[in-house]
Write a structure and sequence with these properties.
The complex is a heterodimer. By secondary structure, chain A is an alpha+beta fold. Chain A is built from 5 helices and 5 strands. Chain A has 2 domains: 3-76, Beta-grasp domain (Ubiquitin-like (UB roll), Roll), CATH 3.10.20; 87-156, DNA polymerase, domain 1, CATH 1.10.150.120. By secondary structure, chain B is an alpha+beta fold. Chain B has helices at residues 12-21, 34-39, 74-79, 81-86, 88-95, 100-105, 108-114, 121-128, 141-144, 212-220, 224-228, 245-263; strands at 5-7, 25-28, 47-50, 59-61, 65-69, 131-134, 138-140, 159-165, 169-176, 183-192, 195-201, 209-210. Chain B is globular. The chains are: A alpha+beta, B alpha+beta. At the A-B interface, β4 and α3 of A face α2 and α6 of B. Bound molecules: flavin-adenine dinucleotide (FAD) and FE2/S2 (inorganic) cluster (FES) (2 copies). The site of flavin-adenine dinucleotide has 32 residues of chain B, from β2, α6 and α7.
């Protein structure tokens, strides 16, 4: 069987996989990291989004083999070891940006990439456009957008540019 | 998904020879179309040849052309200052394909090899008269698209880059399917070295096509009013749960008008 070596949440793993094994299967079934969800399995809902080498990726639409040598971060890798939440997680909590929580891991991972890739500031329109690949059946998105806007200054250590 | 052997060759010649030597071997780019196809068991490849290590990614701008490597992602094209300067309509098109995560993986080469009848890039390539460069030859846009999911590519032929002549004016307008963001109708208008051209995606039963009547109208008078007067027949257009052929015909006119207005 082929092997894949990758770093997940800062820890290196070498895992036997099949050619067809998906990254999300590796994460959930081989490494037990079930925080990454599978909602649609048709590349549309974004529940499976993880960070691969610094960008958000739908892990249900990437082969485990394609992640050979990659640095992967999942929702489990965000909080500090002492349990302190990542600012994005904290703002999701603060702004009630989740109800059932199924979409939340993917939302948070997409949101972090979105904030990181916009150091110049993020408008509400940009946040909504940036979330087009993440579906939520519960919240109506409103509080998610608020949480992301609130996380931006915390993550960039400054005030949000005046809108 | 059926199992397969995963290969990641380091040289284009090696990738091409694996693909040419085995009719069941398939190329893998961003996987945004191919992996869903595999999941549905619509394809049973013997080998999957990942093109990621062939150095096919990158953007080169000269005065008259923009050349984009086949493995360049939609996100890279959308963010490229060079593309934004030379062909802003192309950067904008790339930035509205699918969603963020799809744009991080999906590539221009994959989109063109696949030639989905609702894909965005085929409209840009056809309207600007771009050239598809492969490991074997250069293919003009007018000869490349051969119907739904059909192209001039032969078994084992790998797209290496796409060369766009820089147009004087260009714009793309898409009426997106609200779930997938694919074009229910997309119209790309361009006025440039290859003439005044209008390409329509998302609407035709045979995939992307040139709208000759609109081209003639725009060649005489580049204005939204000129295309507003051109009727688009519903014959040969798609009808599905998202839109009837008649509705799509109407949308072609609306998108074309908006595109010409946006191109200025
Ligand atoms: C949720 C979602 C929304 C989307 N929305 C849009 C949209 O709005 N507009 C749009 O245009 N597209 C859309 N797409 C499709 C997306 O743009 C894909 O990236 C694209 O169609 C395929 O590119 P890829 O790099 O992922 O190719 P892959 O899926 O890896 O490959 C596609 C096909 O092309 C072949 N191939 C790939 N590269 C080459 C090459 N260099 N030479 C020869 N053959 C090659 C493969 O063998 C395969 O048959 C969407 C996809 C998803 C999942
Ligand atoms: S499970 Fe991957 S996009 Fe829905
Ligand atoms: S909180 Fe339930 S799907 Fe988003």
């Amino acid at each position: 069987m082929p092997q894949v070596t990758l770093s997940v949440n800062g820890k290196s793993h070498t895992v036997e996989v099949e050619g067809r094994t998906l990254l999300v299967e590796l994460l959930r079934e081989k490494l037990g990291l079930t925080g990454t969800h599978v909602g649609c399995d048709t590349s549309q809902c974004g529940a499976c989004v993880v960070d691969v080498n610094g960008t958000s990726v739908k892990s249900c639409t990437m082969l485990a083999m394609q992640a050979d040598g990659a640095k992967v971060t999942t929702i489990e890798g965000l909080a500090k070891p002492d349990g302190t939440l990542h600012p994005m997680q904290e703002m999701f909590r603060e702004h009630h940006a989740l109800q059932c929580g199924f979409c939340t891991p993917g939302m948070v991972m997409s949101a972090i990439d979105l904030v990181n890739s916009h150091p110049e500031g993020l408008t509400e329109e940009q946040i909504r456009h940036g979330l087009e690949g993440n579906l939520c059946r519960c919240t109506g998105y409103h509080n998610i957008v608020k949480a992301i806007a609130a996380a931006w200054p915390l993550m960039h250590g400054k005030k949000m540019a005046a809108e | 998904m059926y199992d397969f052997e995963y290969l990641k060759p380091k040289a284009l010649a090696e990738a091409a020879s694996i693909l040419a030597g085995d009719g069941d071997a398939k190329a893998l780019a961003g996987g945004m179309t191919f992996i869903p196809v595999l999941k549905q068991r619509l394809n049973k490849p013997s080998k999957v040849v990942d093109l990621a290590a062939l150095g096919l990614s990158g953007i080169k701008v000269s005065g008259e052309t923009v050349e984009i490597g086949a493995m360049t992602t939609h996100a890279t094209v959308a963010a490229s200052a060079d593309v934004k300067r030379a062909i802003p309509a192309l950067a904008k098109l790339a930035g509205n394909i699918g969603d963020e995560a799809v744009r991080h993986r999906g590539t221009i080469g994959g989109s063109l090899a696949n030639n989905d009848p609702s894909a965005c890039y085929p409209a840009a390539v056809l309207a600007m008269g771009a050239t598809i460069v492969t490991n074997k030859r250069r293919i003009e846009a007018d000869n490349y698209f051969q119907g739904m999911f059909a192209t001039a590519l032969e078994q084992g032929e790998v797209i290496t880059s796409v060369v766009f002549p820089v147009p004087a004016k260009a714009a793309y307008m898409k009426f997106a399917n609200p779930a997938s963001r694919y074009a229910m109708v997309g119209v790309f208008v361009a006025k440039g070295p290859k003439g005044t051209r209008v390409a329509v995606t998302g609407a035709g039963q045979n995939g992307v096509f040139r709208h000759k009547a609109m081209e003639e109208a725009l060649a005489k008078n580049w204005s939204a009013d000129a295309v507003a007067g051109v009727k688009t027949p519903a014959d040969g257009l798609n009808s599905d749960i998202h839109a009837s052929a008649e509705y799509r015909a109407h949308l072609v006119g609306v998108m074309a008008k908006r595109a010409v207005a946006a191109a200025g």
